[in-house]
Amino acid sequence: MAIISNLCNIKHIPKLKKGFGSIRTWQGRNLKKSMLHIKNLNTKYGPIHVLKNVSLHVDQGEIVSIIGANGAGKTTLLLSISGLINPVSGDIFFEDTRLNGTSPSKIVSMGVAHAPEGRQVFSPLTVLENLRLGAYARKDASGTEIQDDIEKVYDLFPRLRERRDQTAGTLSGGEQQMLAIGRAMMAKPRLLLLDEPSLGLAPKLVEVIMKTVVDLNNEGTTVLLVEQNARKALEISHRAYVLETGRVTLQGPARELAEDSEIRRAYLGKDYKDLSER
Ligand SMILES: Nc1ncnc2c1ncn2[C@@H]1O[C@H](COP(=O)(O)OP(=O)(O)O)[C@@H](O)[C@H]1O
Ligand SMILES: [Mg+2]
């Protein structure tokens, strides 16, 4: 398919913000440093073969989204990266370290945090207690540092500040989603894995969440975003991959994918406006 980008063709890689370490090659071009590199990943649930030879990469400073229908394997991919499922074959590298077989808590302490699908906040605990738990892997962080980071989450989501003593199970869906992202932020991740952050939210809240993702990225967090809301995901991402029944079928700059006729028909709906029209 025409849209499949040649990843070696660096003119397709969108410009990223200054400040991220770039590598100058012998050709004098700037190449981005790879943060996550997945090669030929296969993941199964018993006999059910879900991820089939999935290969992808996320460079430092990028927002990369994975779009795909329900059941395509998006959640399974994030669970594989964060060590919650063991892939049967293939490689997952975070910078220079192979993650396969590494415990989830070690992966968090290496700088990879996961805000899971369905929020999965600790319902009986308060907002504040949930945020503190997010920092559990930061053994060397002082109490003041953690308190400062809690304040940063509250600045990002003032609603959480208002509700800091409320139990998480009594929050609205949108507030739980803010808490799930805030809790992942408390791990001070360099790579943030977000699974369907917009699922079930009212359009206004979807905007808040998406803006937050962009803000976090502007502050230096690399993001791998899984979304069924392809329109929103492509709007804020540098690059994207399409996952169909466990296989990567398309990949490229988000702007190009948003203009691809097949993507528009399958994922964006016929009322989708051109990026240039907005
Ligand atoms: N724990 C599980 N046991 C067996 N099959 C599962 C399990 N979790 C997910 N699956 C199956 O794996 C496939 C991919 O699921 P998932 O990764 O949740 O997709 P997505 O997030 O793209 O909706 C689906 O067919 C789903 O039914
Ligand atoms: Mg899912």
Key phrases:
disordered C terminus; Rossmann fold; globular; 10 helices; binds adenosine-5'-diphosphate; alpha/beta; binds magnesium ion; 12 strands; 4-stranded antiparallel β-sheet; 278 residues; 26% strand; 33% helix; disordered N terminus
Notes on the structure:
The chain has 278 residues and is an alpha/beta fold. The chain has one domain: Rossmann fold (3-Layer(aba) Sandwich). The protein contains ten helices and twelve strands. The strands form three sheets. The protein has a six-stranded mixed β-sheet, sandwiched between helices. Strands 4-3-6-7 form a four-stranded antiparallel β-sheet, covered by helices on one side. It has a two-stranded antiparallel sheet with strand order 1-2. Helix 7 links the parallel strand 9 (191-195) and strand 10 (222-227). Helix 3 packs parallel to helix 6. The radius of gyration is 18 Å and the shape is globular. The two termini are 27 Å apart. Mean pLDDT is 86; it is low at 1-30 and 271-278. The structure holds adenosine-5'-diphosphate and magnesium ion. Residues 45, 48, 50, 68, 70-76 line the site of adenosine-5'-diphosphate.
Summed up:
This protein is of the alpha/beta class and 278 residues long. Helices cover 33% and strands 26% of the residues.
Helices and strands, with pairings:
Layout: E1 22-24, E2 30-32, E3 34-45, E4 48-59, E5 63-67, H1 74-81, E6 89-94, E7 97-98, H2 104-110, E8 112-115, H3 127-134, H4 143-156, H5 158-162, H6 173-185, E9 191-195, H7 203-218, E10 222-227, H8 230-236, E11 239-244, E12 247-253, H9 254-259, H10 261-268
Parallel strand pairs: 5-10, 5-11, 8-9, 9-10
Antiparallel strand pairs: 1-2, 3-4, 3-6, 6-7, 11-12
Helix pairs in contact: 3-6
The site of magnesium ion (MG) has 4 residues, from helix 1.
